[in-house]
Amino acid sequence: MDFARLWLGLLLPLVAGLDFTYHHQEAMEAFLKTVAQNYKSITHLHSIGKSVKGRNLWVLVVGRSPKEHRIGIPEFKYVANMHGDESVGREMLLHLIDYLVTNDGKDPEITKLINSTRIHIMPSMNPDGFEAVKKPDCFYNQGRENSNHYDLNRNFPDAFDFNNVSRQPETEAVMKWLKTETFVLSANLHGGALVASYPFDNGAPATGTLHSRSLTPDDDVFQYLANVYASRNPNMKKGDQCKNSMQFPNGVTNGYSWYPLLGGMQDYNYVWAQCFEITLELSCCKYPREEKLPFFWNDNKASLIEYIKQVHLGIKGQVFDHNRKPLPNVIVEVQDRAHICPYKTNKFGEYYFLLLPGSYVINVTIPGQNPHLTKVIIPEKSQNFSALKKDILLPFQGQLDSIQVSNPSCPMTPLYRNLPSHSAATRPSLFLLLVTVLYMLFKYSKA
Question: CA–CA separation, 33 vs 28, rounded Å?
Fold first, then answer.
């Protein structure tokens, strides 16, 4: 028995019921349906749409209330295999599902995670591409793109340049899905490198491209999140494990610093879906031999679990009017880190902000009213699987029913295109002013 097979035998009991092989669509569906049947109280399996060839885009939800959102419980997601030939992430998410459901009620950490989080897992965003791979290769396979020959990670609206491509069914399904949930944190899993990459992937002088980077107003949080994942992966954190690839200090990089990318999913999540997403490159080889899968699971298990826990960073709460009625669609931002498309409360009046320990000012904006400012201090010692809770009661009197009409969604156009050359991360107060002006111009142009 060779070394790889010996390790496979030792590791298999950890994931009883799911073997370390590549699961094609039929086998993947059978596994997901079995999990949904055997763990009905904590799982919900649904399809968010279909691929070009009609394959279901399956999502398995794990949580105490798997079928619907509960106030105060943040929504987390993992998406893998949007490039069909990048196969490791797909299998890691299947094993993650198995690990979560089989350890509920046994492992205190997993039980608390399921109690406090609603976890959405999409093993394959591009099932057609995965099935199109006939001769797996480490560097390039026919199945990278979808069946219409589009790269799905170049297919989303872009905040920096016009992306005039035909929107694909898989992309449209994800965009629609993002509108149905209040996702707070996410990661999309890729292959072909070994690094945790954080936004922005594209950029403009306003975000620092003159310095060969493109930073968000939440750069401190994104760097922290990328390091959380990379630091627990023994090979990723070395930063130099892939031949013919650039080195990544501590296994982390800014997306734009690595290479600019138009129409990527992680930038779209951050700008238009209010969801912090990073990209995880899990393997130097895009489609490694399946006997390597146990080693990838060993390297990524702790990182996958720890990253989910970060959805509880920072602060959360609801915004109420003077009668304690929750206010949906109200602009809620953190002073000095406003977003180009202002973040708003969901239909329950909830807001979630991923923030590191420190002092912050929450700015609630109601049309026709002065900004309502609330100072908060996020302690060094994090809460037990919960962000700091801070409800905001607005003192305003009168009719606020027109908020939804007065706060239109941001247009899916290059919002950063007309901003001057300064870094959002280094000039936050000016950035906030520009965002406000841009928002007001758009608001009144729609009136």
Answer: 9
